[in-house]
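Progress against Task 2.4 (sequence-to-structure conversion) is shown through the following example record, which the project officer requested during the mid-term review.
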Amino acid sequence: MTTTDQQHAQRADEREWLAFSPTSRFSFVCPGDTNTPEFFEERSGRGDGPPLHRHPWPTWELVVSGAITAVIDEIEHRVEAGGTIYTPAGATHTYRVDSDEAHIVGVGLSGGRFHRLQSQAPALLMAEGGPDMAAVGALAGSLDVEVLGPPLSSQT
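Structure tokens generated for the chain above:
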């Protein structure tokens, strides 16, 4: 979908939802491209979160409901409903859902790379026999994302 194809109004059930785990779903309201930011929505369960990573684009996220612990450049932040997270380009970051569920919406400026990563990663993460983290790392690297460590949930 390009921005010229973007609907003026859209229900959540009209978008594709990607499963990253049995309790984590992700959807793009707008996938973004070189001229348009991506706009995304995530709903995740307690303990869910991405591996520690960094990428060369900034993101802004709003915690709509629930609570998370975000770690940005080794500084831990508790963010609850209504709180925001700004991750500068190049910053190391991860988060963990601390409530039963968290609902997060965000905007990024990846030129479409984030959409490509998020669209292809679920098959690798939900692979039979467990996540193929080597393949996830290779995919991420091809899109200028550096995976640096395990999810925060695995570190505590």
